[in-house]
Amino acid sequence: MVNVLNSPLYVLATCIAYLVNADTRTTFEEKAKLITIFGKHVSRNEMTHAELHGVMTDAFDFASKIDVDRFIAQITPKMPPGQRISIVINLYDAMLVDGQVAAGERVILNKFVGAFDLSRDTMRSIREIMMLKNDTSIFTDDNHPYNEPSYTLDIKLNINDDANGKPQLTDNVAGVKEKWKS
To answer: How far apart are CA 93 and CA 31, in angstroms?
Structure first.
C-alpha cells in the first residue's frame, strides 16, 4: 500500500473512500461516481487502468485501517483552499448520488467540513447546488419545491474581472482541457 498522503489525487480518493465506507455498503451509483471522477485521468493517458485500480484499492485499504479523524488532521494543514472545497463538493456529490443519505455518510462529511473551516455561505451554496444536481425528482414531481415559480438559486461569486461585475463564460477555465476548440 502506498502512502496516500503523498498525492493530492490519492487524498481525494481516500476522502471519498471514507464516505463510501461509512454506511458499510457500496452502491452501483457510488462506484460509478468514483469511476467518473478518476476515469478521466485514464482517458487523458495520465494513468493506466491498472494505476486507477491501484489508486482505488489503496484509498479503500487506507480508509479501512486509519481513523478518519487522524487522516483529516494529517491532510488539512497541507491542503490549499481549492482542494478543500473540491473535496467537500465531491463528498456531497458522492453522498447524494444514490438518492439516499446514510447517517454515517453525514457524519463523515461533517468531519471534513468542520476541519476545513468552510463558511456557512460556502456550505449553503455547495449543498444547494449538489441537491439540485442530484435530485432528479425535480423532473418527475411537478410539486417539487425547486419547481415553484418563485424558486431562485442565489450564489455569491467572487468575481475579479472587467465585465462590470457580471459573470463571464471564458475559454480559460483552470484545470479544464477543452478538446473541442480548433
So the answer is: 12
Q: Is the pTM above the cut of 0.90? A: no
For residues 9 and 54, the answer to whether their CB atoms sit within 8 Å is no
Q: Does any domain span residue 110? A: yes
Q: Which CATH number is 109's domain given?
A: 1.10.3680
By residue range, what is the domain housing residue 56? 4-119
Per-residue pLDDT of 14-43, as tens digits, reads 999 999 888 777 777 777 787 888 888 899
Instruction: Quote the number of domains for the chain.
Output: 1
